[in-house]
Amino acid sequence: MSFKREGDDPSQLNILKKRRVADLLSNFIPEDEAALMKNGRYTCLVCSYRPVFDTLDMLALHRQGKRHLEGLKWFYGKKARFQNEVEKRRHQDYIQAEEHREENANPAPLLTETRKITHHALLKSTPYNSCHKTSSGWLQDKSGNWIKDENVEFDSDEDQPAPLPP
């Protein structure tokens, strides 16, 4: 299957390259194991010393050799390690994206309410609530005494509110 070129016709060169690619595919040689060079020769991408072959038959013969088979183990081992590393990094990026999304997302309402109740239960004093019922209609002055709010209507039997618990 040796193809000899006559002249420098670029279209002829392209035809020969296409024919060689077809030959390469017909012999079931994976694309990542061999490459077609610019000059029309083949090179083995598995072997570290990158041997160059004139014909596809020579490449096929090389692929059965001991050095190539050893290189094949190394080549696919390296490829598997690389793929494993890529998957690890994708997974780490996914985990970071999920953590970032969880930080920005609103937590569940029940969880929020539970945290709020727990927080208030652990406080040493009751937090101030302007809507408290021991102060409806009563205002506290600067000295801490309770005075009646002028804008609120009172029942006649209502006394001063009890002080807030400490």
TrEMBL record:
Membrane-spanning residues: none
Major location category of this protein: nucleus
Domain Sodium channel modifier 1 zinc-finger: 44-69
Keyword Hydrolase in annotation: no
GO CC annotation: nuclear speck; spliceosomal complex
Family annotation (Pfam families): SCNM1_acidic, zf-SCNM1
UniProt entry tagged with the keyword Lipid metabolism: no
InterPro entries linked to this entry: SCNM1, SCNM1_acidic, Znf-SCNM1
This protein's UniProt keywords: Ion channel, Ion transport, Metal-binding, mRNA processing, mRNA splicing, Nucleus, Spliceosome, Transport, Zinc, Zinc-finger
Ranges of residues in domain Sodium channel modifier 1 acidic C-terminal: 135-166
GO molecular function, one term: zinc ion binding
Source taxon at top rank: Eukaryota
GO BP, sorted A to Z: monoatomic ion transmembrane transport; mRNA processing; RNA splicing
Subcellular location: Nucleus speckle; Nucleus, Nucleoplasm
PANTHER family given in the database record: SODIUM CHANNEL MODIFIER 1
The protein, known as: Sodium channel modifier 1
Organism: Scleropages formosus (Asian bonytongue)
